[in-house]
Amino acid sequence: MQDKFKSIDGIVVAIKANYFIVDINTYNDNKINIENSRFLCTLRKKIVFKGQQICVGDFVGIEAADWKYMRAVISSVKPRGNFLSRPAVANLTQVIVVLSLRDPLLDLDQASRFILTAELTYSNVFVVLSKSDLFDITMQNHVRKIYQWGYSPIQVSIKTGDGIETLLSKIESTRLSVICGPSGVGKTSLLNYILPDKELSTSEVSGKLRRGRHTTRHVELYSLHNKSLVADTPGFNRPDIQTNPSLLSDLFPEIREQRSKVKCRFRDCLHLDEPGCLINKNWFRYQQYKEMLRDMLSLQD
After folding, report:
1. I need a labelling partner for 187 at 20 to 30 A (CA). Which of 28, 103, 221, 233 fits?
2. In this structure, what are the phi and psi dihedrals at residue 64, rounded to the nearest 5 degrees?
3. Is beta strand 19-23 parallel, antiparallel or unpaired with respect to 38-43?
4. What is the mean pLDDT of the chain?
5. How much of the chain exceeds pLDDT 70, in percent?
6. Which residues of 240-258 are buried (b: 16+ CB within 10 A; e: fewer)?
7. Helix (H) and strand (E) counts for the chain?
């Protein structure tokens, strides 16, 4: 058994009340392999005094490990590779944006905002369209637009099983995937299908508003058989995009692709009405980009 005073590396997989659940087996560099690998932890006072905020996904060092009762103290926090602010998850390698084709209906403005929030992490982003068994001809135009944004969505259904293997292989191909999206699109149902032993709580879409209800109350990481981690997250309905105006264009694949081929006259071009801007403005989300940018600039002023 490990020396109780020796620091052990782990990853925060959940936060409940004032306690942090740290898993030491899913941390890549850890050589420990025991059946129960999760410690219930408190914080060293030095971390509290420094005002360090710890969230799910943070890599930490734990000490004073009580192997009988699986309790320990978090003594250090490693620098983050990236961070998703809402929901708060650190060190993710992939964001899976789940949108529903029906119940609730696909809202393109809302869908774009979730995708842009995912792009803010500068990690791999891909789109899943759930409830594909409810797909009809009227939704084809919406799906076509998502392809035009630069994404190739996977259409899945837990009723037919379509697309589930493709989704699972995506999750297993990387270390930490975060599943996010509007309330009611079926994020937790997808996880229940993939991890049937977890029995996560789900709820129906509101019959009156045709809008999803919030079921997941906090972020938690679940481990797959190959130690890949996946996070179920609380749903919400309209993400705010918070970034420097000069960086907003980096979140749009439509602009990134054009910039790889042409150079605007000025390096700090915002692709509005500047002289020498070579970005073609004739694409579906340009109006959204322009409105977001002008809102950010007005707030700056």
Report:
1. 28
2. 55, 45
3. antiparallel
4. 85
5. 87
6. ebeeebeebbebbbbbeeb
7. 7, 13
Alpha-carbon gap, residue 132 to 290, rounded angstroms: 32
How far apart CA 285 and CA 82 sit, in angstroms, is 26
Q: At what angle do helices 164-172 and 187-194 cross, to 10 degrees?
A: 80
How open is the CA angle 252-129-207, to the nearest 5 degrees?
115
Structure tokens at 82: 């990236």
Tokens (6 digits) for 233: 């997250």
The CA-CA-CA angle for residues 164, 168, 173, to 5°, reads: 150
207: number of Cβ within 10 Å? 8
User: Sorting pLDDT into bands at 50, 70 and 90, what band is 208?
Assistant: very low
R_g (Cα) of the chain, nearest Å: 21
In the block, residue with structure tokens 């599943």? 179
* Phi and psi, residue 125, nearest 5°: -125, 130
**What pTM was estimated for this model as a whole?**
0.84
* Alpha helices (H) along 39-107: 45-50
Residue 143 and residue 134: Cα distance in Å, rounded?
Answer: 13
Q: What angle do CA 98, 173, 88 make, to 5 degrees?
A: 50
Higher pLDDT, residue 140 or 35: 140
Torsion of CA 162, 165, 171, 172, to 10 degrees: 180
Phi/psi zone of residue 164: left (φ > 0), alpha (ψ -120 to 50 degrees), beta?
alpha
190, 98 Cβ separation under 8 angstroms = yes
Q: What is the pLDDT of residues 66-110, one digit of tens each?
A: 999 999 999 999 999 998 887 789 999 999 999 988 888 888 999
pLDDT of residue 215 exceeding 80: no
Which stretch of DSSP H or E encloses residue 20?
strand 19-23
